[in-house]
Amino acid sequence: MDILIINGPNLNLLGRREPGIYGTRSFEDFFPELESAFPGLTLSMFQSNHEGELLDKLHEVGFTHHGIVLNAGAYTHTSLALADAVAGIATPVVEVHLSNLAAREEIRHKSLLGRHCAGCVSGFGLESYRLALHWFQAQQPKRVGFRV
Ligand code: DQA
User: How many domains would you assign to the chain?
Assistant: First the structure.
């Protein structure tokens, strides 16, 4: 099962960026832990600070991969284009956030992507990604009728 983790703007700074909110560990440091935790999933990751590159990546994998874990960063709250892309691809997308959006500024309460996603995990730091992957792993036996 091919799963791509997509991280959007500023997530390349994880570990250094506002550590009180986003923690002290980089995603590159965490990723091998995910790979060992899910030997049955083929994981890859992609990060970009550019909306167009995130769109291109969604289009590229959105009809071939079995799942996408997407942390679109601030584009979550602003990008109708990313929301349209998530709506338009066949691969199921789980939205993730390190921080608990409901506990933050009001502008972060609204996700434009959420209605097109299979679900959302928010507030568990890097563990949010692990929880999203658990869902994909649980889908594996039911793959008959999966959207790809
Ligand atoms: C974030 C939450 C967003 O509001 C913010 O713009 C981010 C990170 C999170 O993972 O908690 O860049 O997506």
Answer: 1
Taking the complete model, does pTM exceed 0.90, yes or no? Answer: yes
93: containing domain: 2-142
For the chain, give the percent of residues with pLDDT over 90.
94
* Residue with CA nearest ligand 1 atom 8: 73
Atom in ligand 1 nearest the alpha carbon of residue 72? 13
Q: Distance between CA 126 and CA 129 in Å, rounded?
A: 6
**For strand 67-71 and strand 42-47, is the pairing parallel, antiparallel, or unpaired?**
unpaired
CATH code at 34? 3.40.50.9100
Ligand 1 mean position, distance from CA 21 (Å):
9
Going from the Cα of 126 to the center of ligand 1, the distance in angstroms, rounded, reads 12
What digits encode the pLDDT tens for the residues 73-106?
Answer: 999 999 999 999 999 999 999 999 999 999 999 9
